[in-house]
């Protein structure tokens, strides 16, 4: 059986190595290893401004993982940038939005992780809290920089949702590395998982094979084997599309 090809959207490093300001395409290796461990063939999709190249990239893969990274430019959801907004890269935003649009049009399964979930939401007309302090309710600590492979929160998952079916439970221990969060949920998306403070931690599309999670399952899958199920679900869907 030919293994499905899973495209992982890349980021851009500009401050690593001896040549400061030199652009490097990359993804954290955890994404790559999580795909391999669960039966997929990972392919890194580098950021590009060439629309024909992006179309070819999406046509080549069987499913897409939108990876984490820098904050999304608030202009993409019609807001001005506040002081709490972090590092922005409009060129990557544009690329990721094209990837979402083309992957959806081609009915490719999509998994958005952290920033990846947020970009799906923005692509569907949703918005973000530029910082959790702007929420009306008191927020828990969601930005843990150390020990990415340790769980720090427990989320609730809606019974009957895709996420509940994948994990076979409605309570799940996760890690957390974000200072922004979904504010207004985008069109045709349904929130299905929440932190104890009400922050949306997972959503899905009832109509398409789209799931977004705010946590980082790729950093957890070695110690928390339950996280394998999320990658297995994506890869199984991709295998079905390949047939």
What do these coordinates show?
By secondary structure, this protein is α/β, with parallel strands linked by helices. The protein has six helices and 13 strands. The relative contact order is 0.18. The protein has a nine-stranded mixed beta sheet with strand order 4-1-5-6-13-12-11-8-9, sandwiched between helices. A hairpin with a 5-residue loop joins β11 (190-194) and β12 (200-204). The protein is globular and about 45 Å long. The protein has one domain (5-242): Class I glutamine amidotransferase (GATase) domain (Rossmann fold).
The N- to C-terminal Cα distance equals 10 Å
So what's the oligomer here? single chain
Radius of gyration: 17 Å
Tally of DSSP helical segments: 6
Strand content: 15-25%
User: Largest beta sheet: what is the strand line-up?
Assistant: 4-1-5-6-13-12-11-8-9
The major β-sheet equals: 9 strands, mixed
The succession of helices and strands, N to C, reads EEEHEHEHEHEEHEEEEEH
CATH top level is Alpha Beta
Can you tell me the overall shape? globular
User: Can you give the helix content as a percent range?
Assistant: 25-40%
Structural class: alpha/beta
Q: What's the CATH H-level superfamily name?
A: Class I glutamine amidotransferase (GATase) domain
**CATH fold topology:** Rossmann fold
Low-confidence stretches: none
GO molecular function: gamma-glutamyl-gamma-aminobutyrate hydrolase activity
GO biological process, one term: polyamine catabolic process
Pfam families: Peptidase_C26
Protein name: Putative peptidase
């Amino acid at each position: 059986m030919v293994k499905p090809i899973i495209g992982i959207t890349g980021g851009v490093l500009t401050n690593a190595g001896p040549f400061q300001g030199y652009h490097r395409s990359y993804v954290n290796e955890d994404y790559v290893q999580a795909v391999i461990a669960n039966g997929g063939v990972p392919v890194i999709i580098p950021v590009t401004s060439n629309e024909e190249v992006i179309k070819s990239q999406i046509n080549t893969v069987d499913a897409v993982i939108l990876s984490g990274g820098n904050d999304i430019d608030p202009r993409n959801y019609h807001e001005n940038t506040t002081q709490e907004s972090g590092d922005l890269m409009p060129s990557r935003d544009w690329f990721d939005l094209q990837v979402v649009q083309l992957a959806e049009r081609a009915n490719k399964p999509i998994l958005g992780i952290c920033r990846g979930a947020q970009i799906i939401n923005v692509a569907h007309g949703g918005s973000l809290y530029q910082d959790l302090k702007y929420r009306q309710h008191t927020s828990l600590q969601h930005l843990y920089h150390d020990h990415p492979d340790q769980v720090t929160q427990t989320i609730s998952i809606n019974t009957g949702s895709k996420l509940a079916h994948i994990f076979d439970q409605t309570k799940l221990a996760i890690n957390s590395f974000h200072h922004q969060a979904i504010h207004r949920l985008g069109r045709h998306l349904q929130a299905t998982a929440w932190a104890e403070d009400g922050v949306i931690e997972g959503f899905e599309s009832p109509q398409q094979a789209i799931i977004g999670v705010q946590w980082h399952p790729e950093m957890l899958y070695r110690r928390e084997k339950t996280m394998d199920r999320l990658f297995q679900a994506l890869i199984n869907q991709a295998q079905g599309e390949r047939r």
